[in-house]
Design brief:
By secondary structure, the chain is α+β, with helices and mostly antiparallel strands. It is built from three helices and three strands; from the N terminus they run ααβββα. Bound molecules: zinc ion.
Length: 77
């Protein structure tokens, strides 16, 4: 599990997170890995919809649990 502690579970994830802000996957300042689900409109304002991913889409490693996600979101708010 040392690889996860280092930040990335596999090369594909590292490549994605190291890519531009246009990449589908990104690392939020809270430490959560988010997927950009595209543009959305909410309350008349257009923005990007970000969803948390629990498992790596490339290798299937569990990146963060529901508890991790809840804790990180609480820390941000
Ligand atoms: Zn992975």
């Amino acid at each position: 599990m040392d690889d996860i502690a280092a930040g990335y579970c596999c090369d594909d994830m590292e490549t994605c997170l190291g890519a531009s802000s246009e990449a589908a996957l990104l690392e939020h300042e809270s430490g959560l890995i988010l997927v950009n689900a595209g543009r959305t409109e909410q309350d008349g304002e257009e923005g990007s919809l970000f969803l948390t991913v629990q498992f790596c889409p490339f290798c299937g490693t569990e990146l963060q649990t529901d508890e991790d996600i809840d804790a990180a979101l609480e820390a941000v708010e």
